[in-house]
Protein 1
Amino acid sequence: MTGIQEALLSRRTVYRFKEDEVENSILDVAFKAAMHAPNHKKTNPWRYYVLGVSARTLLLPEVERLSRSKMLGQSVNDIESGLKRAVSKIMSPPVLIAVSSALTPSDSFREMEDYAATACSIQNFCLSLWGNGIGTQWSTGAITRADSTYEALGIPKDREQIVGFLKAGYPETLPEKEKLDVEDFRTYLP
Ligand SMILES: Cc1cc2nc3c(=O)[nH]c(=O)nc-3n(C[C@H](O)[C@H](O)[C@H](O)COP(=O)(O)O)c2cc1C
């Protein structure tokens, strides 16, 4: 198997990270890979916002609000531990990045192609990190879509859509995933 195929098949979404820092030099290599994604019309529609502690802290009031609204009716103890988990999902990943893609309200096809290019860029980024032993999780939870998140991070909602948060770090555990067989999705037409 080639190195690329090996990386493609072995990459898994990682949900639990070690506390070890990810060196900026490794992130920079991954950003370079992200920049080399295929991109029709060369619009470079992706933006990566790496969130430090202060930026993450600004998200916490909304994290808490969203979390409480999901746990209505639960016991005080369950709510307390649910809140802790929700805060930890934002504060504990060694790397947390909001990724946005350019909006083009006047051209929905351009916007769709730009979203596709941004997804390619994210995959390049994640695979580059994977090649250096670092796992990622792409997340589209409610906090990634809240208006207050755009305000807190200074992302202009009229020009960019946040397509997700990327969490990254050295994997604590590697989940296994069932995948389809090739025959389930591939059709050769005559
Ligand atoms: C657009 C997109 C959004 C995702 N959002 C979430 C999410 O909100 N929470 C989560 O746990 N995983 C999320 N994932 C990761 C998927 O759950 C994961 O890719 C899937 O389970 C397959 O596992 P694998 O990446 O290890 O192959 C997302 C993946 C993509 C591509």
Protein 2
Amino acid sequence: MNYRHSFHAGNFADLVKHALLLWLVDRMRTRGPLTVIDTHAGAGLYDLTGDAVRSREAEAGVARLMASETLPPAIRALAQDVAALNPEGGVRFYPGSPLLVARRLREGDAYLGFEMNPPVVDLLDQALAEYPAAKGRAGDGYVSLAGATANARGPLVLIDPPFEQADDYQRAADAATAVMRRDPSATVAIWTPLKDMETFDGFLRRLSGGKPGPVLVAEARLRPLTNPMKMNGCTLVMLNPPEGAEAVAQEVCGWVAETLGDTGARAEVWWATS
Ligand SMILES: C[S@@+](CC[C@H](N)C(=O)[O-])C[C@H]1O[C@@H](n2cnc3c(N)ncnc32)[C@H](O)[C@@H]1O
């Protein structure tokens, strides 16, 4: 397994995913105790003075976020979490999805994150040590998902693979539709890169074939999708999102495209099925 999220932590795609994740958690918690399952958890906390310096992705992402003075509410919520982890100022530490969720858990809520890479599992355990309701577990998140959601009513599931394996799109789509078949009150959010439209269309066709109910696609395009070798943007595909998701997705993807994108950047937010 070659993928290291530490190179990408705090990039534009993390900002899209994490701002929308925070909104989903806050919104879904209003209904009662919430269970969050993260199939691909990562380390939980990233020190941006490591690998991220070489990639310069955080410099073009979270560093610019923290330097911006006016932020729309959903983006501001993420900036507040980042600021809380850096009490001395600057942006040395950036939270991953496990820590962002763990910090929000209240009595009765729970978080369970799966991670395949043993050294990353150790980092995940360290990041969650202070949060007894949040657990990391070694294992394949796709395989473990059915068991993890079996006793949870209306959970929030994040599927955030590295997309290094050729079958990640297929496994993500099938895992998501299996959750929705078992519990139509669940919400699933799947992160994908956006390189070319053909790959993404194939993924959406696979997903829609599983009849997952309402599917909202939130795209942040940093540039026109002309070079399929590049990550030209990203999406968060939300199955059965709470009311209000469309407007928040527009706010988040619009801010990211406008602030961090090149010429021709734009947000596209649309219902693939409703
Ligand atoms: C994109 S990162 C996750 C980032 C994290 N969700 C966040 O937002 O902070 C993907 C992680 O999935 C792990 N991974 C890869 N395949 C996996 C699998 N089948 N099950 C669980 N984890 C996996 C990788 O080691 C990597 O740490």
